[in-house]
Amino acid sequence: MSRASAAPPMLLIHGLIGAFDVDAGLPRHAAPPLLGYGEHQATPPARISLPAQVEHLRAFIDTHFDGVAVDLVGHSVGGAVAMLLAQAYPQRVRRIVNVEGNFTLADAFWSASVARMSAGEAEAMLDGFRADPLGWLGGAVAEPRPHWRDTAARWLAWQPASTLRAMAASVVAATGAAGYQDTLRQVFARHPVYLLSGARSHAGWTVPDWAWRACAGRQALDGCGHLMMLERPEVFVAALRHCLGHDGN
What we know:
One of its GO terms (cellular component) is membrane. Its EC number is 4.2.99.20. By secondary structure, the protein is of the alpha/beta class. It has one domain: Rossmann fold (3-Layer(aba) Sandwich), CATH 3.40.50.1820. It contains 11 helices and 6 strands. The chain has a 6-stranded parallel β-sheet with strand order 2-1-3-4-5-6, with helices on both faces. The protein is globular. The two termini are about 15 Å apart.
């Protein structure tokens, strides 16, 4: 965790696969692994859900940030976790940057597919990705670069297939719930929410019209898709700093 700056702390929340590591001059920030990921890979699948991740991150905030309200940056599934965290603990959140996070079940199309897989099918899928890390990246970036192979391999090793199945099922349950849109509206009413997307993937992000109107700011980053923090990290970080008022730090 970086503490060099006086900027409000920033909590980066990763998506369904991989870590959320950005090394391009972010101010004070942390990117802890969710339950089932990284150092928490041994977490039993029965204990892995979006509500459990909210409690996991709330405990992290309380332990590491001394009661200071944090800025949340949630990517993909992490965007849904960020919104649920802000709804459950609004006093612990200052601002939110939702980076192509799940707004509707349409955003969870891949999670829905994973949730339907058997344990063996999920293992085979992940093994296939791990056998060809750059091929896996090719589904999200225009031209995977050879030096990204190590990053992709590390991201693919960040979680077991059992975590993917548990998280995918919870994503479908949470974002498909009747009250999810009301939850999102409450968060927008309480906090500034910024919407950040990649120019290539923007059209596939099913943000409701009311959210576009209610957001504090929106930006689609040129030359990027869903993994914009990998493709153009400096541009991504500059957008975060602008959204969160860190430009001078």
